[in-house]
Fold this sequence. Notes:
The protein is α+β, with helices and mostly antiparallel strands. 62% of the residues lie in helices and 13% in strands. It has 2 domains: 3-113; 184-328, Histidine kinase-like ATPase, C-terminal domain (Heat Shock Protein 90, 2-Layer Sandwich), CATH 3.30.565.10.
Amino acid sequence: MPTSEKKSWYITSIAYWFLLLYIIAALVWWFLSLVNQSNAMAGYRADQLRYTVDSVQHRAAYDSQLQRINEEKRRDATKYTAEGITFMFVIFIGAFFVYRSVRKQVRMQQQQQNFMMAVTHELKTPIAVARLNLETMQKHQLDVQKQQKLIQMTLQETMRLHSLTSNILVSSQLEAGKYQQTVEDLDLSQLTISSVEDFKQRFADRPWEMEITPDIAIEGDPLLLQIMVNNLLENAHKYSNRGTPVKVVLKRTGSKATLQVIDEGIGIADGEKKKIFDKFYRIGNEETRKTKGTGLGLHLCRKIAKDHRAEINVTNNLPSGSIFTITFHRIG
């Protein structure tokens, strides 16, 4: 969080706790004032009653009246205590929800700011690379091999740009409930192989391994499932060294199918394993991290998996790396 935002949050927190403590102190003061006032009135009425006792025969009436005064004093004390506890409970509940809402708003604002920074960088990079490559081919007479290399680099950047825009568009449509899913029978095995083959062409310098059980049929949206597989492959590629392999395993277990994307990268800390599926969440600070990304890919994977009655989780790949596993509970 930038220094200015930290200072603003610090000032807001001080003001919040000051007002909360002031309200509590005011409530306690009014409670003590009411109790003292009730005790004073009871004492005044008891003194007045004492002056009315002028004979022994009035003693029974005096005791009865004094008992009633003390009983009213106890009822008032009980009433004030109950009301004070109720008000205190309501204040604490309201303060909790206000504090949680403000923290959530600040966190969301920071995540959106990080997202905008990441998207700006992600959009500018492929556009700049593609423009530079095209200008190079336009200004210089390059041999065929160099031209093909520049064209391949440009295609990789445009594919990355396409993946980014697809993630943003589909994520916004799913969140708004405006995406029209098409459920059809499809071959999950072939869809996975197609995605891996595409990544093999885009990133030929990395070993890609496959263990795909053929003819695993599933009902679902082919575009969403393709985006989900591509995001997992992209994630494994980004967070592992180029010389290490990325392994994709698809197997059938009874009526279930399990898709695993295994890398030998930096891994994910246990405290981050649940957070990485949150929208806009990225490990580290957006201003200092070097790995590209927007924080939408894994969030979108979880959303797509849930819509297809599947579960996604991440475990450690010993000695290093991560294993992302998607379990489909209903297959053909």
